[in-house]
Design a protein that fits this description.
mainly alpha, Serine Threonine Protein Phosphatase 5, Tetratricopeptide repeat, 3 domains, 3-stranded antiparallel β-sheet
């Protein structure tokens, strides 16, 4: 009996430790991104350093931290360290070279050596399985689409992911890298009414799945089943049309903030919008995936006019910003 109690104590301690680390990681990532939006690049760099102490960083955060320390702070040693981790997760770093000042050409050589010598640490067999799954997925989504076959393939793949998790554990970036095949499958699951919660939420809380991807997937799922979204990440909520960014406010911003807190996301709705505006205006970092729409000039101008008229009447349910021409 004593051994059983000891086991459960250790188990719950480890779970609590992992969640606490994830919470602090999210906190400092949020502070780093907000500092970037305030053009406080040195402060942002320090926040990234703090965040990366608490858990294995996600590719998206390593990517932004690398850009920050190459282009803005010139802390190349940190950028080298982050680039090493990106390469270990199969994330290419060729884009770095265009960011390095010509007077710092020696660093270009060091990044090239890193690119040529660092070995991937991902599970190649697991990645191959995901590649085969996406091939089957795409086969029925091109040409004459067979809806019944698509639903059948999605069901088979959804169950297969559970099976892979049972065999390999959480399908995190250490095992599969920043894997577009996996993300595409997850999007298709959500579109075909498979809830991401059972599949991913525990991994999110443990810091094994990128939380920004999760909130977008879950809001997509809620959209598809006709339910109100809860994280403020509906695909139609914020989008760009050419040089105009359209922002639709959630009906209940307080609820959005509370739901985000429940999954340890240390970012309010207004902080999220601040980051989206910065990303749209300057295009230096990738805080969130972009949603772009096609509209005619007349339709864009009509939409802007509608929003202006709403604001004149004291109705503030959406806004727009126009990107300044450089």
């Amino acid at each position: 009996m004593k051994n059983v109690l000891t086991f459960f104590f250790i188990f719950f301690y480890l779970c609590s430790f992992a969640q606490n680390g994830c919470k602090k990681y999210n906190k400092y990532i949020n502070l780093a991104e907000l500092a970037i939006c305030d053009f406080e690049y040195d402060r942002a760099s320090k926040y990234y350093e703090k965040a990366f102490q608490y858990q294995n960083p996600f590719c998206n955060d390593l990517f932004n931290a690398t850009i920050l320390n190459v282009k803005f702070t010139k802390k190349y040693n940190l950028a080298l360290q982050y680039s090493r981790q990106l390469l270990q997760k199969d994330f290419e770093i060729g884009w770095i070279y265009r960011l390095i000042d010509t007077k710092d050409s020696l660093w270009t050589f060091k990044f090239k050596i890193l690119e040529d010598t660092v070995k991937s640490l991902t599970n190649k067999n697991l990645k191959l399985i995901l590649e085969e799954m996406i091939e089957e997925d795409q086969k029925w989504r091109h040409g004459e689409m067979d809806i019944c076959k698509i639903m059948d393939v999605d069901n088979k793949n959804f169950l297969k992911i559970f099976s892979l998790k049972k065999e390999f554990g959480s399908l995190n970036e250490n095992k599969i890298g920043c894997n577009s095949n996996y993300k595409t499958l997850l999007i298709h699951f959500a579109k075909n009414l498979y809830s991401p919660r059972e599949l991913l939420l525990s991994s999110v809380i443990d810091g094994d799945f990128f939380i920004k991807d999760y909130i977008q997937l879950f809001d997509l799922y809620l959209d598809m089943i006709g339910e109100p979204t809860i994280y403020g990440r509906s695909w139609g909520q914020i989008y760009s049309v050419k040089n105009v960014l359209i922002i639709n406010y959630p009906n209940d911003i307080e609820r959005v903030n509370n739901e985000r807190k429940k999954i340890l996301l240390d970012e309010t709705w207004y902080e999220y919008v601040k980051k989206i505006k910065y990303q749209f205006q300057f295009n230096n970092f990738q805080f969130y995936s972009k949603v772009e729409r096609l509209m005619s000039e007349d339709d864009i101008n009509s939409l802007i006019k509608e929003i202006d008229e709403e604001h004149q009447k004291g109705i503030y349910i959406r806004e727009y910003i126009i990107r300044e021409k450089k």
